[in-house]
Amino acid sequence: MRLKHLICIFPVTLLFLVSFPMNSDASDSIKTAQQAQPELRLKYKIIPLSNQIYQILDYYETRGELGFLPQTKPYTKVVIVELLQKLSVNERLSVKEKKIVDRYMTDFSSDNNGVTVYKQASKSTFALAGFGAETSVRAGAGDDGTWSTSLIGEPFLSGDLGEHLTFHAGMGLAVERLAPDLFYQSYTRNGKVNFPNENIGYAYHPYQFNFETMWAHVLASAESGEGPPVKDELTAGMIYHTELNGSWFDGALQVSINNQRRAWGHDEHNLMLSSTARRFPGVEFKIQPASWIRYSNMTGSLFSYANQSSGYRKNIYGYDLGQVQKNFTLHMLEFMPAKWLQVTAAGGNIWSKRLEIAYLVPFVLPHFTQIDVGDHDNLSLYFDVATQIPQIGKTWFSFFVDEFSFTTSGALLKMPRNRYAWQLGWKTSLLSGIVPGTTSTLKYTRLTPFVYTHYPETDFNTFGSDRPLDMTYTHDEFNLGFYLPPNSGEINWKLVNIAVPDLILTLDNRLIMHGTNDLASTNVYQIFGDVYSHQRGTDVYEYPLLDFTKDGIYDWTIQSELKFDLKMRNAGILNYYRLVGSLGYSNTWWKSNASEVAAPAGKNLFTGSLGILVEM
Hints:
- Helices cover 10% and strands 41% of the residues.
- It has helices spanning 26-36, 53-62, 77-88, 95-109, 314-317, 366-373, and strands at residues 72-73, 115-121, 125-142, 147-161, 165-177, 187-189, 192-194, 218-219, 235-248, 253-258, 263-264, 282-290, 293-303, 325-338, 341-352, 378-389, 393-403, 419-428, 438-447, 474-475, 478-479, 488-497, 503-516, 553-571, 574-591, 603-614.
- The strands form 4 sheets. The protein has an 18-stranded antiparallel β-barrel.
- It is globular.
């Protein structure tokens, strides 16, 4: 998207990702880790964001023991081993804490924690064949509550090619009944809020539904062709995880091709690229030429099976949403001028699948590229400032700019013409004085109307049809950035406890506010909170100023969920498996305000889940 007069703060088998050296001691520490453990295999394999280790590292970063960790997650095994080694010799850790660290060191020093079928090593190569699995059952009780289940089995092949390359390929099948949340694919039209999945029911709290398998599912009875993943029957789906990762110059240069979930920011639910985004194949490279600077670059392929039809949801929005054949390029530059201060500048670009080499040039934020190639794509800018103060914790302020104009005067931050999002967060270990091993995260996130949206683009279509291209900040029907729709706010308070060995306890509390208006209204100059509803008026300055929580029909949700993640060790042929579960409650209600949309009856939902995870 065009950024007028913007004041910038800072000018299917194998895939790959690797993280960076960490802070002022990172390069030396990675070198030490490799020298101290020459037997470490699969050292550049990605460790998924679902692994317990990220909560452990988060706690010690918050305490100030690790400096600023890289914002570009996930990390690789060798990077995590290096961090654990650094903690194991830290004199500020207690004997009990070091025992916990040593347990994780043992886990990551193993070749594999899943089922090993066969492995072989030579002087310069290593190969391992194994099997991973995940099974879970969820149930919702209350208004339209139902059950959901997923059983995934995934054989895999991993290996090392010399000192610099690691590969991994896992491909599997799943049997599932996916029951979504209240707002999955919901919309507001003809004076009412529509819930397309009400007949199926809900097993997730509002806005929390996600799934791991590929979108297209078939009935397990094989009585249908490929279709949507949410059905009122058991379905079969596919899944794959692949990566090819390389590291050179003692970790200062890392290159990767992979389709893992990613989180680029200070929190897994951030404004640029969140863990809630569906995984996509991407090429990444990261460099750290000095201890005080890190640069990351990624280009990925975005798509959506559902949008292959020109009539997809056309009856809802009144126009073709467009083909989802687009790429996503993201740059991030992290600068640490002092031990307690980090400044980050980043830029993203959603662009049609054409060979635009200008977008691949490192260190060039998309706004500068647009000046050269023209305004054909959906670009964004981002910056944040973070501090890390002993005894206080880590704070950050993030600002995401979709579009912004200074060509008129007035309350610029209240004009829908200016589309942006911001997040203010604070992580602290202060509560550890009361409950040892506790990280507390308090954050507020605000998305203004029309952020992440874009009109269907007609400038480029290289696929032999006259359909426009979907250029929204989405992939496979899920947001790439923050998980809520535009025109939303969230207060989130999360407590994570790691005090008991092998057990992670999480209490996640949210207050969510989201507003929109009737998509069928003839008045286009009103606030909409739907990522597929872009600004359609001929004069964007005709929109009224923002009046958050009052300029449309608003849904309000309070929810709280207690989760546990327990390692069960000495489990026969496994080093361990993980037992995971949750209990939660949510209450949702609506305020019509002056929207002329009928407020639905309030909804209450109790949920519980239980699952077993055998890691790859």
